[in-house]
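Final report, results section. Input specification for complex C-07:
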Amino acid sequence: MKVVSVVGARPQLVKLAPIAAAFAATEHEHVIVHTGQHYDVNLSDVFFSGLGIPNPDVHLGVGSGSHGVQTGAVLSAIDSVLADANPDWVLVYGDTNSTLAGAVAAVKQHLPIAHLEAGLRSFNRRMPEEHNRVLTDHAADLLLAPTAEAMANLAAEGLAARSVLVGDVMVDVCLSVRTSIEADPPASRQLPEGIDASQPHLVATLHRAENTDDAARLDSLLSALADLPVPVALLAHPRLVARAESFGLKLSRGALHVGAPVGYAAMVATVLGSAGVITDSGGLQKEAYLLERVCTTLRSETEWVETLAGGWNQLVHDPRSLTAEEWAAIATRPAPDGDRGLPFGDGKAAIRVVEELERRAGI
Ligand code: UD1
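Structure output:
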C-alpha cells in the first residue's frame, strides 16, 4: 500500500509523528508532502527533528497568503505530485488550508482520501478551520474520527457509513513525550525572560484569526492577560507578532512575558511546569487536559467539548466582561479531581489508522 500524507502547518506535524512511526513499522510506502504553509524553523523544522519524523519527500514551498491564495497555491502545486505518486490513499490532517487543498486535489483525481481528525465541529461558520473541516469531510472516502462526539457530528451530516472511531493520535504523541520527559527531565525550560520556572506561572498562546485580526479585540485580550496576578509566559505565534506590530500593540506588558514558539517536547515540559494554560489553540486545549493542567480557552466555543467536563477547560470569550477578580479566579483555578475516563482514546490511534487504511484500501 502506498499512502501520501499531506501536511503543512505546525499541528499537522505533531499528528504526522505517530503516523510516520506506525508506517515505519510496516512494509507500506509512506510519502510525506509538506506544503510549506508553515516555513519558520520553530513552526516546522523543530517538529521533524524533535519528533523523529523523516524529512518530507516533497516540499511545495507555498508560504503565506490570503486563504484563497494559499489554498490555491497548494492545490496547483500538489496536482502533479499526486498524479505522479498515484497512491492508494491521500491522507490529510486536521483543518488547515493545506488540508482542504490536499483533499480537493485528490478528489479531482479520483484518489481515495482519508481525513485524520474528521468530524470536529465548532458550528462557527466564521472560522476558516470550520470551512476546511466540513468541506474536507464531505470530500473524503474514509473519515478517521478521534472521539465519539466527532462520530456523532459525522452521523448528523449523513457521513456515518464512511466514518470510523480510531481515537486521537495527539494522545499517542503527547503521552509518549510526557513519559520521556518524566524519565529524563530537561535541565532547563525554554521560558521567556522574566518567568521564574520555580514560581507559579501560566502559559499562553494566541493565534486564531478571530482573536488576532481585530485590533480592539487583540488589545483587550492582551490587557486581560497582562492584568493577571501571576506571570504569564506568552509563546507568540508569528501571526500574533505580525498583527500586534501592525496595530502598534505591545505584547510584553504587566504579567505578560513574551517568548518564541517552542518545539513539541519543550511545549509538553512547559505545560507540565505551569499552573495552567490560556489559549485559543485546539491542540493545546487537549494537551493541557492530557497533562492534567487546567485550561482557559479564549473563544466562545470549542471543538474539543470533552475537555469542558469537570471544569478542566473553561471557555471565556471576553475576559473584559468579567470583573478582574472573576477573571483571575478562573485563570488561576485549581485542577479539578475525579475520574475523567479516556475520551480521546488510549494512545494507540496511529496503529488503528494504518490498520483501517489497509483494510479499506481499494474502496
Ligand atoms: C494555521 C491554520 C490554523 C492552525 C495554525 C497552527 C489555516 C486556515 N489555519 O493558522 O488552523 O491552528 O496554522 O499554527 O490553515 N507566519 C510566519 N511564519 C510561518 C507561518 C506563518 O511568519 O512559518 C505568519 C505569516 O504572517 C502568516 C501568518 O503567520 O501570514 C498566518 O499563517 P497561516 O499559515 O496563514 O495561518 P496560521 O495563523 O498559522
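The pocket of uridine-diphosphate-N-acetylglucosamine is lined by residues 9-11, 37-40, 43, 64, 70, 95-97, 128-129, 207, 237-239, 242 (CB under 6 Å). The first helix runs from residue 10 to 24. This concludes the modelling results for the funded period.
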